[in-house]
Amino acid sequence: MNNKVQWVYNSQNNQELAQRYNQWAQDYEQDLTETFGRPKREPIVDLTLKYVPKTARILDAGAGTGTMGQWLHEEGYHNLVGIDISEGMLAEAQKKNIYTELRPMVLGEPLDFPTATFDAVTACGVFTYGHAPSSSFDELIRVTKPEGYILFTLRPDFYESSDFKHKMADLEAQNKWQLAELGDKYKAEDKGQFTLYLQTWVYRVIN
User: Fold this and answer.
1) How many angstroms separate the first and last alpha carbons of the chain?
2) How far is 72 from 66, CA to CA, in rounded Å?
3) Burial degree of 22 (CB within 10 A; 0-12, 13-18, 19+)
4) What is the pTM of this model?
5) Domain that holds residue 134
6) What CATH number is associated with residue 175?
7) Which class for 193: exposed (0-12), middle (13-18), buried (19 or more C-beta within 10 A)?
8) Residue of 115, 134, 176, 204 with fewest CB within 10 Å of its CB?
9) Based on the structure, what is the number of domains in the chain?
10) Hey, CA dihedral for 190, 193, 194, 200, is it positive or negative?
């Protein structure tokens, strides 16, 4: 199972990444829960509740099989749009019947939404090794309304060792967004070969 994660992380390009997630899609949720001990719900949900009204139109970026969307839906968020690189994952998300729209799109490329479309964006487990680049934030900011929120998780080690730290600070220096809250570190996976920690960042979009 750990090999499956490495296999995905080692994708050479977006096409290969999408194909590998397509192959994993049907077993993905079960694998994460049973093999890795993924929490039944992650703190990003409570932070969304804190900052984002229930009436908000939310973009679930990197929606995968719709786990994040399901958590939000259970809390009364019913205006959810999901995008993902993998059509196989989106097909699984579709079965949950919780999204108003699901579309294949690639983070880091131009997104096919008008400017200021969403009240908030969530991205849980999306930004990591070999996945969506830090340049994804430019488009996520563009499609979010001013005063809207972008909430996402990152591994603290990845944040420190990648270009994300610089990119996030640079966007703040440009007055594109402002850090509203940095959540506590939490165990995201506790059954694998090592314990994986994540943190949740909450940014308010300025323009």
Assistant:
1) 42
2) 10
3) middle
4) 0.87
5) 2-205
6) 3.40.50.150
7) exposed
8) 115
9) 1
10) negative
